[in-house]
Amino acid sequence: MTNLRIISSDRPLTKPSDEASDIELLHAISVDLIGEQDRLALYGKIVDAAISITRSQFGTMQLLRKSEDGSGTGLHLLTSRGLTPQDQAVWQWVTPSAFSSCTQALKSGQRAIIPDFETWPDIAGTPDLLAFRRAGIRSAQTTPLVSRDGSLLGMISTHWSEPHQPSNRDLRLLDILARQAADLLDRTIAEEALREREKELEASVTTLRETQELQKLLAGELGHRVKNLFAMVTAITSHTLRGSNDQARVQTLQQRLMTLSSAHDILLQSNWKAALLGDVVATAANSAGVAGRIRIDGPEVGIGSKAALNVALIVHELTTNALKHGSLSVGGGSVDLNWRVDGKGADETLRITWRETKGPVVVKPERNGFGSRLISAGLTGPGSVVLAYNSTGLMCEISAQLSELQGAE
Q: Could you tell me the domains of the chain?
């Protein structure tokens, strides 16, 4: 017959006089536990209370958790009373295969009582029995700590130096203490998990900030180098074409390069992902020094990097043409540059309108130069541009699927 008892928490009530003193004891323990804020001190007070209730010489509190290598679960020693450092090291981590009251409770999910280790057949001849003898432990009880949702959190154990059988009164009070201990342990586990999560989030935020700073630094360096490249290309172009009889063409080329450089600056601010159409249009139109004569209006629309460069070049060519031949070539002329989005969902279409007024009569050119071909090509290919050479001035409407313009290419 084995010297091991697995028992439930249902116990007969004690006498009324005993109940009064027990209630006072539990009340004092509760006040002491609730007032403690230090986690380790809290665990220690729980074990002290268990020792006080059972009048034992030793006590431990263990946490159920996975092993460090994740291969299995076991009981990790949170705190103890009466054990030497050597004994604490032995029971710092207890696997389910060990022989003790706590592993029996772990297997059964209920309280386990061993009145005398020396008469328990299962432990005879094992290193576990030698460890109990060395510690001076002869008997033990372990009460599981179960959360309110039914999860096993850990164990609270008391040990005696002589053979011992806990009374029903002791076990009843231990059940009440275990309920309080489980609630407190559940709370501290949740708080610890929250602190760990906060540390992880803080580390992630720090890494993100460092990445953003590095991105910003690299983008700034890239922007600086590209601007230098534009300046070098412009200088080489000027040097190569120096002495050319057609200085107007040289100037036109330089202006186109500067327009691309300005559009690049806008895209750089958004890491070349997208740009606001209004910013691109305004920069391209105002680079010619006629900001007050071009009225710009339209909703906030984001476009991709390739579309932004195309828009910048087209608006530059329209502005240049208006300065040479259109409404901006005379004092009272002006331009309305606006856009709108028609349709919904996948059918959304962007329509950009350039309308010149109060300028000279314009006629369709006999020969199409680079600027005319660029405008006629539109943003997404032929067929998306309408040009009207009205007596009141040039009207140009460019349309394109918004989804195509918002892509990276």
A: 5-199 (3.30.450.40), 241-405 (3.30.565.10)
